[in-house]
Amino acid sequence: MIAVLVVSLVSSQAYARSRATEGDTKTQCLWWKERTVITWRQSTLGSQRTPGESEFAAVEASFAAWQEVLSSCGSLSFEQGPRSTSRLAEYAERGANENLVLFREQRCNEVAPRQDPCFSDGSCGNKYDCWQFSESAIGITTTSFDPRTGKILDSDIELNGPAYLFTTVDAPPCVRGAESVACVAADVRNTMTHEIGHLLGLAHIDEATSTMAPRAMTGETVKRTIDPGSRRFICDVYAKGQPSKTCFTLALGTESAPVAKTGCAAVPVSSLLAVALVLVRRRRR
Ligand SMILES: [Zn+2]
């Protein structure tokens, strides 16, 4: 008898989808409607400390990496809109919406008065153009979606400029404590490729080689390359020529419930889901 031992050198190629309640698999998955052209825009300000226009090109390259997967087997597409003067990471139920990428450059607890109610309702970031999230998070993607269906309406990406030096060079990795723009500190593409995964509906996965691994080291660039599991997410969930896959069948009529025709400004209420790319941080000094 010949025993055939199949050794899998490839990882399990797994992925996890974002849920209406993060981590709760009894709640609906988040998804973009099939054939959506997702227009994204960069803030005109870019990143203050990253040289020249290199950060804009790095953000473009990050979207292009996902577009390559979408073109091969997906039904969505990305389109870059003109740079935006908006500093608002939010979903407006009325008026123009932007899927915005912006670098925050100051900490909210340094620029907003301590008694400002924005600290309790989470509005400081937009009000004072500041980073309002955890100091350790490199980036945060805030996705607005219809809680009845999981359909994504808007997604904005903020990057933590006060705490991290964003760089665009390919090598070498910076030595911790000696970060500069001549080496790789917080790589824009490493960070953005991960955050765009969130924008598309991916959640974190505890697999070190995944683009959606929740942590990144100083000098890391591995997440620039979209891993097989995350690629499979695109081909599975947004399969070309098919409706986007939800996790539970939508109740009849919910998907197309028109906001404008209900005549009720109170529906639908969008929910916010912030997901963070957390860096394994050592003390800066
Ligand atoms: Zn993340």
Short description:
With 285 residues, the protein is of the alpha/beta class. The chain contains seven helices and nine strands. The strands form two sheets. It has a seven-stranded mixed beta sheet, covered by helices on one side. Strands 6-7 form a two-stranded parallel sheet.
Verbal overview:
α1 packs across α5. α1 (about 55-75) links the parallel β1 and β2. This protein has helices spanning about 55-75, 110, 120, 125-130, 190-200, 230-235, 260; strands at about 35-40, 75-80, 100-105, 135-145, 150-160, 165, 185, 215, 270-280. It has a single domain (about 35-250, about 270-280), classed as Collagenase (Catalytic Domain) (3-Layer(aba) Sandwich). It starts with about 35 loop residues before the first strand and ends in a 6-residue tail after the last strand. It is about 20% helix and about 15% strand. The protein is an alpha/beta fold and about 280 residues long. The structure holds zinc ion (ZN).
Bound molecules: zinc ion
User: Oligomer, anyone?
Assistant: single chain
From the 3D structure, determine the CATH topology.
Answer: Collagenase (Catalytic Domain)
Strand order of the largest sheet: 2-1-3-5-4-9-8
Count of spatially separate domains = 1
- Overall helicity: 10-25%
Give the SSE string: EHEEHHHEEEEHEHHE
Alpha-beta classification: alpha/beta
The H-level CATH homologous superfamily, spelled out, is Collagenase (Catalytic Domain)
How can the largest sheet be summarized?
A: 7 strands, mixed
